[in-house]
Amino acid sequence: MKSFFKTCIITMILFTCIFTPALAWWDGVQDVTIFTSEANLSEEMPVLIDENSPFFETFSESNRLNVLLMGINTNLADTIMLVSYDMDTDDIYIISIPRDTYYPRPGYNSPSQKKINSSYSTDGPLSLAVAVSDLLEGIPINCYMKIDYDGVENIVDSMGGVPMNIPFDMKYDDPYDEPPLHIDIPEGYQVLDGENAVKFLRYRKGYPEGDIGRIKAQQEFMKSAFKQALGLNIISVARSVLDNVESDVDVKTVVSVAKKATNLSSDKIKTYTVPGEGRNGDGGLSFWFADEAQIQQMLTEIYTGVTPVPEGETTETVEGEASAA
After folding, report:
1. N or C end of the chain, less CB within 10 A?
2. Assign residue 208 a region: left if phi > 0, alpha if psi is -120 to 50, beta otherwise?
């Protein structure tokens, strides 16, 4: 397996509950960038909120911070998540974007270039942010965070490991990977140290739903890591994140969030995956074809708390189905 999971999973924890209180006092240098950064989305994005978006008013009136989390492998985005933090309610919404999502771009005509993960190779975080915003109906993206798998290992170790219930025996070997990959994680509840956490997140072969199953596993790991990071090692975790994350987050943003983030807890996290279906496309490659109508329903639910009734159904039908389930 040549790809590996380079997730920004812990950076969200840093941003929303660890690093913000630690720096709330640092109000005199608000434009200072905290991390190393190769882009500044707030300055370089073509438009923060797309006026042509059907959600223009909803996006404009909301009090949210949207952070693009990315993991990069050989100049491709191996993991893509959009974290939307509602600063009025302290709710956190995580939208996972399958890396194989079909996203054709003018001038990029090879089949592999029509996957959204290839957008990163054009202009780094900026081009990927533009693609994700476009896919999600012009949603504003305020900043990004990026980490590699060594960073994930370091941060997980700094918090004392992450408790996880492993759904099945995970065994996989790839002597040709760099570095060589050997995964042997038994089924059952356990606390994953940094090394095994990375292996768990890199594993992709055994999920019945394929990459969508892997995405769900990432989301469960994120929830558990968030809860674990609220423990006694909070200062150690914050320092580790500082050493292992690339981001364009500045102190002004941190202070703003710190003043709001007073009731954060793991049960505030809600997870979503861009709706659609997987099937073969150009060149016989496997793609995830996003469903625009379902994306709009998802965004309506995230931004308003109201689950839209699908066209052709009544409220009574939906409620009845929910009750029967």
Report:
1. C
2. alpha
Instruction: For residue 43, tell me if it sits in a domain.
Output: yes
Q: Where is average pLDDT lowest: 31-45, 66-80, 216-230?
A: 31-45
Per-residue pLDDT at 148 exceeds 90: no
Q: Sign (positive/negative) of CA torsion 153, 245, 98, 13?
A: positive
Alpha helices, H only, 56-148: 56-61, 120-135
With respect to residue 2, please indicate whether it lies within any of the assigned structural domains.
no
pTM, two decimals, is 0.81
Phi, psi of 280 (to 5 degrees): -70, 145
* 161-205 pLDDT per residue, tens: 999 999 999 999 988 776 678 999 999 999 999 999 989 988 878
State which residues form the domain around 280. 9-324
Backbone angles phi, psi at 265, to 5 degrees: -155, 165
Count of structural domains within the chain: 1
Q: Which two tokens stand for residue 21?
A: 């209180």
Q: What is the DSSP string of 123-184?
A: HHHHHHHHHHHHHTTT----EEEE--HHHHHHHHHHTT-EEEEE-S-EEEEETTSSS-EEEE
Evaluate whether residue 3 is within a structural domain: no
Backbone angles phi, psi at 271, to 5 degrees: -115, 145
Question: Is 179 within a domain?
Answer: yes
**How far is Cα 138 from Cα 246, in angstroms, rounded to an integer?**
24
Diameter of the chain by CA atoms?
Answer: 56
Give CA–CA dist 220/231, Å, rounded: 18
